[in-house]
Amino acid sequence: LGLPEGSKPVKFVFHGGSGSDLKDIREAIDYGVIKMNIDTDTQWSYWSGIKDFEKKYHGYLQGKIGNPKGEDKPNKKYYDPRAFMRSAEESTVARLQKCFEDLNCVQVCGLDAPGKPENVLGPRRGGLPA
C-alpha cells in the first residue's frame, strides 16, 4: 500500500470480545482494533446488580410488610424498583469503567472527568438562556 511501516490502514472491530482475557484485548488493540462490542458485559453487569441486591435484601423482599427487623416493619424502600435499578446502574457504571480501562480509553477522545456543566445549546439552538 506504500504506507509507512507500522501503519494500520484497516480499522477492525472485535466482535465477541466479552469474556476475553485482558492480554488478548490489548493484543487486538495493537493489531488495529478500534472498537470492541461489550453488550454482553453490560447486560450481565446490570443483571448482576439486581441479583446482588436481591441476595443482600432477600429477607426484605418477601412481602410488603415483615422483615428481619420485625413482622410489622414495611419493606417499600426495598421493593421499590428504583432501589434495585440503582444497584443495577451502579454495577454497570463500574463495569463500563473497567471496559474503558481495558480498552485504553480513559482520558482520551473527550472521556476525561466531566467538567462543570454549561448550557452548550444556547438560546439560538433551542436551549434555555444561560
Give the SSE map:
Blueprint (H helix, E strand, L loop, with lengths): L11 E3 L7 H10 L1 E4 L2 H18 L8 E3 L2 E5 L1 H4 L1 H22 L28
Parallel strand pairs: 1-2
Antiparallel strand pairs: 3-4
Helix pairs in contact: 2-4
List keywords for this structure.
130 residues; two-stranded parallel sheet; two-stranded antiparallel sheet; elongated; 4 helices; alpha+beta; 4 strands
In short:
With 130 residues, the chain is an alpha+beta fold. The protein has helices at residues 22-31, 39-56, 76-79, 81-102; strands spanning 12-14, 33-36, 65-67, 70-74.
**Spatial ordering of strands, largest sheet:** 1-2
Model regions low in confidence, pLDDT < 50 over at least 5 residues: 126-130
Helix content percent band: 40-55%
Assembly state here?
Answer: single chain
Describe the structure.
By secondary structure, this protein is an alpha+beta fold. It contains four helices and four strands; from the N terminus they run βαβαββαα. The strands form two sheets. A two-stranded parallel sheet has the order 1-2. Strand 1, helix 1 and strand 2 form a beta-alpha-beta unit. Helix 2 packs across helix 4. The longest helix is centred in the last third of the chain and has 22 residues. 8% of the residues are buried. The C terminus is likely disordered.
